[in-house]
Amino acid sequence: MEQQTSLRTHLQLSIYRVIDPVVKVFIKLGLTPNIVTSIGFVLNVGVAIIFILGAEEGNRGDLSYVGWAGALILFAGLFDMLDGQVARLGNMKSTFGALYDSVLDRYSELIMFLGICYYLVGHHYFLSSIFAFIALMGSMMVSYVRARAEGLGIECKGGLMQRPERVVTIGLCAILCGITSFYIGGDYKLYVPAIKFHIFDTMSIFTIPIVGVAILTNITAFKRLLDAKKALLEKDNNARGIKDRL
Predict the structure, then answer these.
(1) Quick one: which H or E segment has residue 36?
(2) 20 to 30 Å CA-CA from 147: which of 20, 141, 199, 225?
């Protein structure tokens, strides 16, 4: 876990070095962290709109909508890092800003998954839409367990599928799905002799990772719950020990 955290921190610092010049431009333009957070939210609304348009106007074999939505997912996710850096470098940290960022992050993720589920249902990927909804549940519970634990005075971070990992996984796989469909077609299917149904199609490039997100987010939430339980028991035992000594 410590090795994973160290790698994640190293990657974040590397990204910060790249985006800091952009952050300084934002600060000079007078953009506040809350404005940057709001821009990220609006972009995620755009993600949902692209998926919905893909369901309503595109056909099942046209995965270009998925690709463009993936690109916007990554672009919107960048603002999740920019707002924090604007607050730090611009000395504009505030308690409400932290709350506002957390609330809009949850709304952004809900809206993104709304678009994904709408697209999958619209093109009859019913099983994949169920996994997308399970991924949404896990994503919300990862955040909720942390927030509830911290409300009880326990730090509860870590896990394999935190928000940045979810954004990068879904965004990159959506882009790859869209690009692949351009070369091999959106209706490509891979069959194996003696098996009546196909074992892979172009859309699988997008839907299989969603299954992974669905599984790993819920594992992460459950792991955080167990970690919080252990920490709370230790906290209660320490409190009893102090009380007994008194």
Answers:
(1) helix 33-56
(2) 20
